[in-house]
Amino acid sequence: MPWRATATSFVGRRQEVADVRRMLQRSRLVTVTGIAGVGKTRVAVRAAQFMRRAFTDGSRFVELAGHTDPESLEEVIAQSLDVTGDLTAQLSRRRLLLVLDTCEHLTAACSALVQSLLRAAPGLHVLATSRQALRVPGGHAVIVRPLAVPGGESAPADVARVESVSLLLDRVAAVDPGVDPGFELTERNAASVAELCRRLEGIPLAIELAAAHVRRSPVDELLARMDAYGDPLGRPDPLGRPDLDRHPDPSGRSDSLGRPDSDGQPVASDDNGRRATYPVDVGGQRARNVADAGRRLRPSADARGFRGSDSADVRGPQGSHPAETGGPWGRRSPDAGTHRGGDVTTRAVIAWSHGLCSPEERLLWERLSVFAGTFERAAAEKVCAGGPLPAARLRAMLAVLVEKAIVTREQDEGRAAYRMPDSVREFAAARLAGSGERERLRARHREHYYTLAEAVGRDRGEAIVRVRDEWADLRAALESFAADPAARERGLRMGLRLGRLWTFGGMAGYGRRYLERLLPITSCPDPVRLDALLLLAHLAAGSGDLGAARKALEEAEAPAAQLGPRGALHLAKARGTVSLCAGDLTAAERHLTRCVDGLPPDGGVHPLDATVELGLTLLLAGRTGEAEEVLAKAGTLGREAGHAATAAWTELALALARRTAGQYAEADTLARTALRTQVSLHMTFGRALCVELLGRLAADQGRPARAARLLSAAQRLWGYEVSPLLGAPILAAERDSHLRELRETLGRQHGKAVAEGRAMSEEEVISDALAPSVTPPAPAVPFWAPLTPREADVAELVAAGLTNRLIAQRLVVARRTVDSHMENILAKLGFSGRSQVAAWVIGRRQREQG
User: Fold this and answer.
1) What's phi and psi for 329, nearest 5 deg?
2) What confidence tens digit (pLDDT) does each residue in 560-589 have?
């Protein structure tokens, strides 16, 4: 997953970032802990970005906030890393920093999985953020405390240097970028600004929420509003914070339907038994965690509670608590950073911000909590509009929430998306739970993403990219369908539409488990059941589980029989795929040919896939000419239909065929095109084969250093994929002879090229593979021109008297490959027989020696 984009600058936290970096040098697991809203993610991401170059494979970010199923945690991480094979096996060969963000609702599962991965992958380091430290032997914890708050400072310059004030001033200026906010720190307001930061206890999220109001209202007026609220901790109000018993909502309304708190909705309690400002979410784990926030994090105990652990108590800019030392950096409230004081202060400020919103803004805020991850404005309009919130007003209300820091806007690769901070979303979700709207919104949410999935079913490239960005909400929709017995058939239909994403986008494991879970408990029409079973067979075969694939095919026979000839043809396609995976080329050709001949060309993805797989089958069988003809037909069908993912595979298969025929330049162009498409669509399936093929082609074209580097890098990429469909038998048969030739050609330089390939990250490998072609050096054996090095090998063995069969055995290649080389040799030299080739070779040798 790409790093989360941030629209605001990073303020302060130098000591915290340094502590995390220092801990990562001492331990392979570091958990950044702290209260809600304290900035754990920002500190972890900052530290990870500084340390990327210390890891050969860089650092990768995995966001867990929208995932609640412990059993699928490994699949979520694998998908974020673009791994479709075995995650543990892949990471065992990597030197990688893995950042797991927001682990507190999956602490046990994260701890168990991280312990397993660290044991198997010696080059792996894990940096986690959580309100509770992960319990793994040897792990360390860094406790991020709130920012320092002003102490006895009075001069504006001194107050501005305190971290909490610096953050406030930065966020006030960033409320409307490019526009003068009309606010500056002066002698008149310095004391009030200092008091505001003290009341907010230096908690970054609370400060950012307050910053949105500082531009509109004088700081003294904001403090007066806080005074009117009371104290959430039940104290005699020394800091002027709200008594949420007396003032549950300054507007007098508490839920998204405008009903007051007194209508009987359940409310949460803090550790002192006092009522909080939002109802308990009886159905959502994350919202239940909000209500139980007073018991969730005890960083010091967790940091020292497992064998071999250590913790760093992150302090102020000078490395100490300002409350203990005083000085110009300010001080901390006695409760700042403690679980009880900090979490309740964060919730109180969120509730205060909620009360300062208009009814429409509050309603949209609560409704937006239905989204599990980032969302686009169009999705918000489809899901959240209605009733007192008309669609025409939603765009303006969303902009206001962004301005108030309730929602953040992210721009990444041309896509504008929105998200809510976790604590803010939890607050809204808890209120929504008691409003009666949650189930209705969830139904609208899942229907919206069902519609989005339909675009993926048509294999449109831009749709595949888009749904990867919205996978958290797609997954939430799938699980919502699965949890509703009346909607499970619709869940299966949605899964079928996501089949292309599961196959090509690194999510095959989740797709397979979802189908295996729903099929036995779902009543559905025969066409739906047949397609679901065939997709299950395809996913199982692609992961190498041929037994499960054959079992799914057996179960598919009954619904296929009910659908007549069309059902039989679809079943034949799946049987052909499984046979190809199993290496039974005869059966694969029979089934796939039946499918291609029986289904109309415009019959959808099935005939197009069958055509591509038939071409691969013929290629593996050594029938290059027939394979090219079939694949050319598949390319035409794919371009006409706009099936981007399938078109990429067609180009890759054609590249294999052209290389076998000795058409290296054309094969190189096709392989690069296929790799570019795979990268643009975030396809993980097939990348390793593209890089491997480009390495082979570099050797064929006389660029041995590039060949050795790419082939070395490709060996590491193979771990991202598990599928016998990759065409590897063609390449594997040549691997040993090619590597031997490269060692002989490069000599001492061979080790250097191999080391360079092994040291490259995945992004660097792709960049190198796609780099523009350069003029190749002079051939190692120029006297063989116009033959390629491989054709020269064949010609020499012909001169030695070997038959094509013996040449194939000597070079460890397919017999058909040697036949193709011979055809090329005869055509290039203008000869008609082997004796002429032998005489030509002997003559070249004599001229070289003479």
Assistant:
1) -85, -5
2) 999 998 899 999 999 999 998 888 899 999
DSSP letters spanning 51-106: TGGGSTT-EEEEE-TT---GGGHHHHHHHHTT--S-HHHHHTT--EEEEEE--GGG
> What is the dihedral sign for C-alpha 568, 570, 571, 575?
positive
Which tokens sit at 39? 């900035």
| 3-state DSSP assignment of residue 708 | helix
Amino acid at 545: D
387: alpha, beta or left? (left if phi > 0; alpha if psi -120 to 50): left
User: Does 77 or 214 have the greater pLDDT score?
Assistant: 77
User: Does residue 144 contact residue 40 with C-beta atoms inside 8 Å?
Assistant: yes
Measured at the alpha carbon of residue 65, what is the angle toward residues 504 and 363, in degrees to the nearest 5? 110
Distance CA 540, CA 550 (A): 9
Q: Pairing mode, if any, of strands 415-419 and 408-412?
A: antiparallel
Give the whole-angstrom CA distance, residue 754 versus residue 713. 8
Cβ–Cβ < 8 Å for 202, 317: no
From CA 766, how far away is CA 710, in angstroms rounded?
A: 9
Exposure pattern of 218-240 as b/e (b: 16+ CB <10 Å)? ebeebbebbeebbbbbeeebebb
542-578 in b/e form (b: 16+ CB < 10 A) is bbebbebbbebbebbeebbeebeeebebbbbbbbbbb
Six-digit token pair at 120?
A: 């198997």
Over residues 479-487, the mean pLDDT reads: 93
Which of 282-291, 359-368, 544-553, 756-765 comes out lowest in average pLDDT?
A: 282-291
Q: Going by C-beta distance under 8 Å and a sequence separation of 6 or more, which residues neighbour residue 190?
A: 154, 155, 156, 159
59, β-bridge pairs: 97
Yes or no: say if 175 and 315 are a contact pair by the CB < 8 Å rule.
no
Q: Give the rounded distance of the alpha carbon of 646 from its chain centre.
A: 22
Q: What is the enclosing helix (H) or strand (E) of 313?
A: strand 310-313
Query: Among 397, 393, 395, which Cα is nearest to 406's?
Result: 397
C-beta of residue 367 within 8 angstroms of C-beta of residue 408? no
Taking the CA atoms of residue 726, residue 727, residue 733 and residue 736 in that order, the dihedral angle to the nearest 10 degrees is -40
What is the tens place of the pLDDT at every residue in 130-172? 988 999 998 999 998 888 888 876 678 888 888 888 888 888 7
How many angstroms separate the CA atoms of 451 and 654, rounded?
A: 34
